[in-house]
Amino acid sequence: MLRKYIHSKTTLAFLFTALVCLQSFAQDWDIPANKKSKNSYFPFTKETIEDGEGLFLKNCQSCHGNLGKDNSLKSLKPTPPDLAGAKTQERTDGDLFYIITTGRLIMPSFKTIIAEEDRWDLVSYIRSLNKKYIQVLSKNDPSKSKLVVVKMSFDSLSYKLRVDVKANEKEGVIALKDAEVFLFAERYFGRLQIDSTHHTNNDGVAFFSFPKDLPGDKNGNINLVVTVGDEVYGEIEAAKSLKIGVPTDKPSLTEKRAIWNTVTKAPIWLMLTYTLILLGVGAFLLYIVFSLMKIKKLGKE
Amino acid sequence: MAKNLDMLEQTKLDKITSDLLRHIRMNKSFVLWLSFLGLALVVCIYAYTIQLKEGLSVTGLRDYVSWGMYIGNFIFFVATSLVGMLISAVLGLSGQKWAAPLARIAEFIALAFAAVAGLVIVMDMGRPERLLNVMLFARIQSPIVWDITVVITYVAISALLLYLPLIPDIKMCADKLTNIHPLLRKLYRILALNWKGTPEQAKLLKKSTRILAIMIIPVALAIHTVTSWLFASTTRVGWDSSIFGPYFVTGAFVSGAAAVIIAMFFYRTNFKLKDYITELHFDKMGKLLVLLSLVYLYFNLNEFMVPGYKMKKFDAIHLRELFTGAHALLFWSVQIFGLILPILLLFFKKMRKPAPILIIAIFVILGAWFKRYLIVVPTLEHPFLPIQNVPLNFKFYAPTLVETMITIAPIILVLIIITILSKLFPIVPIQETIEHLEESKK
Amino acid sequence: MSEQNEQPKKKSRRDFIQQIGILGVGSAIAGSAVWAGINYDKKKKAGDRIKVLTAENELLEIDKNDTTKIKKSKYDNLTLLQKEGRVGIPGKRWVMVVDLSKCKNARKCMSACQHAHHLRPEQHHINVLKMQESKNTPPFYMAKPCQHCDNPPCVAVCPVDATYKRPDGIVLIDNERCIGCRFCIAACPYSARVFHWTTPLNEEEDKDKVYNVELNVPQRKGTVSKCLFSADRLREGKMPYCVSACPNGVYYFGDENEDAVTNGTTKETVRFQKLLADNAGYRLMPELGTNPRVYYLPPKNKSYPFQEGDKSEAEEHLDNNNG
C-alpha cells in the first residue's frame, strides 16, 4: 500500500495523511480502568452464545468475518481483526464490552443500537471458541434494576424534559446519583438520541433540552425512551409517549394531479383535450360513414 | 354530357379508361414479384420468431441503447406516410391540378406505411402479447398512448381518403374489367356502393372527400408531432428540443415526396402510364422536393446550430459525436447525400427528368432512413451518467443480423401492400382524369 | 339418502370450496372461512367428508374434522401483494442519503442488491460509478440507485401504468403489466433502469413463486426492472438490502416526515435535515427538476483514496466533455 503511494504521483500531503493515519492505527484502545474491570452479571451459557451469534452475524460479520476463519474485510484500514485471534482474546470482558459500546475510528459505536444484555451476549459469543477462557461474574445483583423507577415530565416553558431516576429500596426511596442517562425519540429504523448524554444530579434528576422542531405523529405524539446506566443498578430502560413533537400529517406524495400520476389523477386540461379531440374526430368519421351509407342508398333507387 | 361528344372524343375517353385499367390483372411478372416478396417476408418472420423465443437479446440493444433500429424504422414509417396528406389534401385543396394523378400513389404509400408502422412498434416490444394492456390500462399522459390513438385515426382517415375518390373508379372496374375472378367482381360491386354517378351521389361524395381532406391535415401533423414527442418529452440530450415537432414533420415530407417519386417511376414504366404520369409531373415533384428539403434544411440548421453555439456540457458530447466522433461518417453522408446535394442538383431542370430524379430520390429516402437512426441511437449512447460496470457491448450499439431482418420485414410488407393495392385499383384516378380533360376543354 | 341424490350435492360442495378459495384473500381468509363454515353447516348438518385440492393438484377426500385452517402466507397472495404494492406504507416519505466521503468502492451494496432481486452480474439496480466532474476536480466513487424522483420522468411516459409512484414516494415497476416498450429507460436521466433482454437469472427456481411487486421477484423476460428502495424490507421495518450490506457507513435511510435517517452500518439515527445542512447535502442533476428522494453528501475528506487504477475509467466520461 505504502509503496504504491510513493511510486505514484501523489503529493507529499498525501503521504503525510497516510502517515498520520498509520500512526493513529498503531494507537491502541484507551480503555478506562473502571470499564476494563467490568463484568457480565449473568453467566455465559449455550443460550447466550447462540443469541450472541445472531447479533454477531447481523452487526459484526460484514467487517470482522467469521470467528476463527480469518476472513475479515482486509480492504478496510485499520483492518478489523478476527475476533477469535489471540490479540482479542487477551483482552478482558470489560475491554470487549467497552469496545463494542463506544467504537473507535471505523468501528461503530453500538451503545444505542444493541442493548446492554445483548452486548454481553456478543462478548459471550466472541469467547465461545476460546477454550482457556474462564468467566468472571460481576458482583452486581441484576435484579436490582427492577427496583428502579424512571419518571419523565416535560416543561413546555423551558422546553426541557425532566428525568427522575429513583430506586424503591426497602429502606425507602433512593435517588440514583451520577447515573448515565440517555434520551431517545423512536424513529422508524432506530432511536434518535435527543440532546447529549447526561448524568443525574444528587436528586437523581437529569434535564434534557428538547428540540422544538422534532416531528411527531399527526397529533404531535413522540415515543420517548430513556435508558439509565448505573454502576449498582445496571441498565434500566423506560418508555413514554408525550405530545411534544410537531404534529405532522403530510399528504401522500401522489395526491395532486400530475402528468406522472395515474390516469385517474391526470391533469384536467389533458383529460379534456384528449376526450374532446377523440369525440370530435369520432363525430366526423361517423358523418363520413353515414354519408357513404347514404350514397349506397341513393344508388338503390 | 355524352351528347356533346363526338365519336373521336368517345374513343379518347375509352382509351383513357382502358389505359388506366390495364394494369389491373394478374401477369407473370406480378406473380413473380409477389412470390419473391412473400418468400423474403417468410424469412424475416422466421427471424421474428427467433426474437419471440429468445427475447430481445437477439438484437444489439442493451440497457443504455435500449431503442435502436426498430424505433428508427418506426419514425421512418410514420414519416413516409405523411405524404398522403401533403399531396392529396394540401395540394388538392390548394387547387394544384397537376398533382391529381399522383394523389392515389401518395395515398397508397400513406395507408401502407401508416398501417405497418403499428406493427413496427409491436416488433420492438419486449412483451408483444400484452399489447392489449395499452387499451386496458391506458395512461393518457403517455405520448405512446397519444401515438397509438393518432396512428389508428390516421390509418382510418387515410383509408377513407383513399376509398372515397375510388368509388367511381371501382364502379368502372366492376363494369368494364373483363377476365377477372367472379369473387373479385363481387368485391368491386360491394365496394362500389351502388354508385351511379347521380348528381346527388356526386355531391355527397365530393363533400365527404373534402371533409376528409381537411381533417387529415391536423391528424397527419399530429401523428408525426406526437411521434417526435416520444423523444422530446424526455430530458435526454439531442431529444430535449422544442422544435422537434416541426423538425420531424418537415423531414417527413421530404422522405414521403421521395417515396412518391420512386413509386411514380416504377408505375410509369411498369404499368405503361407514360401519358398520364408525364415528365411534367417529375419536374413538379422535383421542385416540390427542393422546397421541402430547403425547409427541412432550415430546421436542421436550427436543431444543430443553436446547441452548437452554446456547447453546453452534454450537448457538446452529443454534437461532437455526430460531427467528428463515431457517427460522423454517417451523419455527414446523410446530410450531404440525403439533403444538400439533392437540393443543389434538383435546381437543374435536367436533374428533374425521371431517371436522374429517381436516383436522387433513392438517395434522399436512404438518407431519411439513416437520419432516423441518427436521431435515436447517438443520444442513448451518451446518458448523463457514465456507462460503467457493464460489458462492452452495452456501450456501443451494433445491430445484429436477426434485428436487421426484422427491420426489413415491415418494408417488405409495405411493398406487398402497395403492389396488391395497385393490382386491385387504378393507380391514376380515372374519373378525375376525365373530369379534368373536360374542364380543360371548356 | 340415495346415491343419485348425493351426487349433485357433492358437486355443489366442491364448487363451494373453490369459491372459498377465490374469496379467501389474505387476512379475509379467516373471516370468510368462518362464514363459509356457518353456511356449510346450514346446508348439511352432519358435514363429515370434504374434498380438498392439494398443492400437488391431488383431489383428496378427508374427514372434515381432520382439517385445520392454516393461515396463508401473504407472499402467496398475488392480489394482496399487488394491492399493497400500490398503496405503500401510509404516512411515510422515504429518503436515502448517500455519504460519498465514506464510500470505499466495496460494492457490497451492489452484490446484496443483485442477490436479493435475482439479477445478472451486468444488471444494476444500484451501481457504484467512478465519477469525475471536470479536469481539475477530484474523482470519487458514487453509488447510484434509482433516485425515486418526486417528478419522475419515467413514470410520466409509461403507457400502461406499469411503473408508478407510490404515496410513500417509491417508484415501483409491476412486471405483470409491463409491455416492454422501454420508454421509461429512454426517459430516465439517471440510467437507473434495466431490461430483461433474455431469460432472468433464476427463472427456473423462481417459476412457482408468487410475484411480489415490492421485490420484483420473479423477474420476467421482456420487462423492465429497477431499484425498489427494497419496499419489501421497509414493510418489515428493515432498511434496504444495499443500505444494510454497506460495511462503510455510506448509506442513511429513513422517513422525511420523521426528519430522521438511520445509518445502515452503524445503525445510528440522526436528524435528516441537520445531516444535509451540516454536510452540504445535494441532489443529482437538480436542473432537470426531477426532485429525487436520494440525497448525496459531497466526497469531502474522503476516508479512502480514489484508486489509481480507476482513474482512467473516471476520466473517460470527462474526456468526452472537454474534447
List keywords for this structure.
B: 442 residues, C: 323 residues, alpha+beta, Alpha-Beta Plaits, 5-stranded mixed sheet, two-stranded antiparallel sheet, 11 helices, 31% helix
For the largest interface, the chains and their residue counts are: B-C, 54 and 52 residues
Q: Under CATH, the topology of chain B is which?
A: Formate dehydrogenase/DMSO reductase fold
Task: Tell the overall outline of chain A.
Answer: elongated
Radius of gyration of chain A: 33 Å
- Poorly predicted parts of chain B: none
Instruction: Tell me roughly what share of residues is in helical segments of chain B.
Output: over 70%
How is the quaternary structure best described? heterotrimer
CATH superfamily of chain B: Formate dehydrogenase/DMSO reductase domain
Q: What can be said about the biggest beta sheet of chain A?
A: 4 strands, antiparallel
Pattern of helices and strands of chain B: HHHHHHHHHHHHHHHH
Query: In the CATH classification, which architecture of chain B applies?
Result: Up-down Bundle
Number of helices of chain A: 9
What is the share of helical residues of chain A?
25-40%
Q: State the separation between the terminal residues of chain B, measured CA to CA.
A: 12 Å
Itemize the secondary structure elements and their pairings.
The complex is a heterotrimer of chains A (301), B (442) and C (323).
Chain A: H1 2-7, H2 12-26, H3 33-36, H4 46-59, H5 61-64, H6 86-89, H7 93-102, H8 116-126, E1 148-155, E2 160-169, E3 172-175, E4 180-186, E5 191-199, E6 205-209, E7 222-230, E8 234-242, H9 268-300
Antiparallel strand pairs in A: 1-2, 2-3, 2-6, 4-5, 4-7, 7-8
Helix pairs in contact in A: 4-8, 7-8
Chain B: H1 7-21, H2 28-54, H3 69-81, H4 83-93, H5 100-124, H6 133-136, H7 143-176, H8 182-191, H9 199-232, H10 244-270, H11 279-310, H12 313-323, H13 328-346, H14 354-381, H15 401-424, H16 430-441
Chain C: H1 3-23, H2 28-43, E1 49-53, E2 59-63, H3 78-87, E3 94-99, H4 108-117, E4 127-131, E5 140-144, H5 153-157, E6 163-165, E7 171-173, H6 183-187, E8 193-195, H7 203-206, E9 224-226, H8 231-235, H9 241-245, E10 251-255, E11 260-263, E12 269-271, H10 272-279, E13 294-297, H11 311-322
Parallel strand pairs in C: 3-13
Antiparallel strand pairs in C: 1-2, 3-10, 4-5, 6-7, 8-9, 10-11, 11-12
